[in-house]
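Weekly structure sync, notes
Attendees: PL (lead), two postdocs, one rotation student
Agenda item 3: pending single-chain targets
PL asked that the sequence for the first pending target be pasted directly into the notes so everyone works from the same version. It is reproduced below exactly as submitted, 396 residues in total.
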Amino acid sequence: MAPAPKDDVVRHPPPAESTPDGSPPRFIEDDYGRALAEARARGVPLFVDAWAPWCHTCLSMRAFVFPDARLGSVSPRFVWLSIDTERSQNAAVVSKLGVRVLPTLFVIDARDERVVLAWPGSLTAPELATLLDDAQSGVGPRGPLAVDAAVTRSSVEGRFDECAVMADREAARMPPGTAVADVIRSGIDCAVKLVDHPDERARLADLAALGERVASDPSQPILADDRSDLYDYTLSAYQALDRRESAQRLAQAWAAFLEDQAARAPTPSARAVFDAHRLLAYLALGEPERAVPFLQQSERDFPDDFNPPARLATAYFAMKRFDQALAACGRALELAYGPRKLRLWSLEADVRAALGDVAGARAALRAALDFAGRMHLGTAYAKEIAAMTKRLAELR
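Predicted structure, written out during the meeting:
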């Protein structure tokens, strides 16, 4: 039997045979067979949330969207299943569904397991309700969501020039909502990869200006986590363009926004949704020490979750407090499970190398590679494994 989940997520209500009208969804956790059988018995589609405990967007959906009463109109029409993609027991389902982006939200025809909808990313509760209405009616994403899907697809499939051009063309004329934030983020990500080309630099500058405008607009009906993500991507655009003053200004605005959201969060789990981005914002500002208090609080609040000590290790490493970084990394590794452990061992190798412990750094990398071999991680982690293999060979 797999160990109990170790994460800081908001737990869904206990699984139920059905969801009462007007109630938010009730999820079956990590049991595809049971959920599929229930969907077939009830004659309804299966909704699947493919997520991971380190994914801030996934945690945002679980904390702020799925519990929303506005999903009450669609919740009885589906069986709801959540799949932790890090768990080995779910590997076959993750492979079968072809999960490439986290979260990915699926609608599956329970009769033949045909994927009716695969939506990569997040949505507000009203947007999700509309998307599910359409999926059940046999209609694909429409309007802005169709543009969002097309831009995302071109990015995921590596067609970066097409992605950047489409995003630059469409984003400025899209209505407010999650789709415009997604399109700008995807466009920035693609344009950054092509930033050495003069046309792409101009396109990236346009997208960055629009990204800052949308992120800073409180009237945009988007999740706080998506707004934060847009700050993050826009900051990366300014950094790629060597616009240091713009990057610094935006990082300060980003950190202020996140502090406000964390202060207003209704529960510790909802507050912890913002931990990853709060750390990134302070790293961008060169002030990692400001992340330590809230990460220590999260570690106290969620003693079985690997994320807070893992993030503390990153903060301490940036502060050159290597002994504390190593201790935090050790605590995270004791709690972690699944492929995320690779990054923890890689971080441990960084810390040990900074301490001059080359043998320890090599041991950490060997542990990661041995684990990857036992897990049979496949192509999804091929680049990460290749980088660690190369680094191990170079460490002398």
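Discussion points:
- The radius of gyration is 21 Å.
- Residues 27-140 form a domain with the Glutaredoxin fold (CATH 3.40.30.10).
Action: rotation student to compare against the earlier draft before next sync.
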